[in-house]
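Sharing in case it's useful to others searching the archive later.

Someone asked me privately for the predicted structure of Phytoene synthase, so I'm posting the question and my answer publicly. Question first, with the sequence:
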Amino acid sequence: MEAADLASGKGHRDENFPVASVLLKPEHRAPVMAFYRFARVADDISDHETLPAAEKLVQLGRMRAGLDGKAEGSAEALALRTVMADYRLDPVHAHDLLGAFERDVTVTRYEDWDGLMGYCRLSAMPVGRYVLDVHGEDRATWPASDALCAALQVINHLQDCAKDYRTLDRVYIPAETFAETGARIGDLTADRATPALRAAIVSLVGKTRILLDTSAGFAATIADRRLAAEVAIIHRLAVSLCGRLETRDPLSERVHHKSWETAFLATGAAVGSLFRRAA
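And my answer, the predicted structure tokens:
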């Protein structure tokens, strides 16, 4: 079995946040897209609804072998390895990301917020760090990037909380949050969120807003103007989605932005970012 046989069909335009948008310079988009294709394949493996856990780990192992340049490695990993060598990029980010997908196979529950952030350290933060390295940005930008990427991950988890549980028996809402609000994991199977589950979601949105506050000045610290504009857009979309999660039920209502809403928010954020730089 090849990794391509497990593909979900999802592409970079289907993600909740921009991935290698046209804002980025062509020479930067190429390595970012190579990383995305690698991540997309690994995600499809770990999220496959019928593939046995043992086989998922075998397939993810082939991806790690590809990063190491071994002949049995997957094509996507070997391709990324070549790109990283050409651009002199640290492979640690790709290895860390694979660790998150392996964890998705073996860990389906989190005890507390710190545990969830530990997962984000593998699943989200390496993505931002890789993109910054592609652009040659100062690594002093990493803490703000880490905060933003972790926020994006939690937002995605909250939007998909019912789907993740129903299809993969995976719950990212920490046990401590269920206990604090009186919610139960079984609430995720309902057509509508119970008041307790809504309270749990809103509680996590509050913590996510702290991450977004931490990363509010991130775009202004980025030297590359185009990347700064894209980061400003992503941050604006994330803040908007937090507001939606506080007022909408992800079990019964649409939380994702419509295309025109994304375009409206993105335009405002990009223009604001570029204007501040010109001032």
